[in-house]
Write a structure and sequence with these properties.
167 residues, 46% strand
């Protein structure tokens, strides 16, 4: 299995973009603040594994490997973006590591329904095939969402991270 660095370019249209089977959605209300609707945000996902106490590119991973994903969220526009939202899927062959999603100045929420809705871990529920409802676990998460609490300045970068383990 190969996990590569993936770079996405998303235009601020509030529409999810698909590339290589992964989804990155940028939810920015640019038009509401008078910004051009086509200013690009670039998201670069870097997957690394720890080997001998250092991080190396996750070119080849095997079952049980812990992978650190770092998302570089770059505002290439010259003006600030009001509180951008970054949504990223947990790759299908991975299981999210509890409490590992971080980002300075962000609110983190999760989805258990392939990105249709998001909430905090304590509010996420799963309906079992028999109709019984249970609390969701980190293994149930399908997507992570980071909402920046502040504007992302023009020509600047924000970083968010999470860990996951290869199934």
């Amino acid at each position: 299995m190969r996990v590569s660095d993936v770079e996405y370019t998303a235009r601020m249209l509030g529409v999810p973009f698909r590339s290589l089977g992964l989804l990155v959605a940028i939810g920015v209300a640019a038009a509401a603040v008078g910004q051009p609707a086509l200013d690009p945000i670039v998201i670069k996902a870097i997957a690394e594994v720890e080997q001998s106490s250092k991080l190396v590119a996750a070119d080849r991973v095997v079952s049980g490997d812990a992978v650190l994903y770092t998302l570089e969220v770059r505002n290439t526009a010259p003006t600030s973006l009001p509180r951008p939202t970054v949504t990223y899927p947990i790759p299908e062959h991975m299981t999210y590591t509890p409490d590992s999603a971080v980002g300075p100045g962000t609110e983190v929420t999760y989805s258990v329904d392939t990105g249709r809705s998001f909430d905090t871990p304590e509010n996420l529920k799963i309906q079992e095939p028999g109709g019984q409802v249970r609390a969701a676990t980190a293994a149930d998460y399908t997507h992570i969402r980071w909402q920046l609490k502040n504007p992302l300045k023009g020509n600047s970068v924000a970083f968010v991270r999470f860990r996951a383990r290869v199934k």
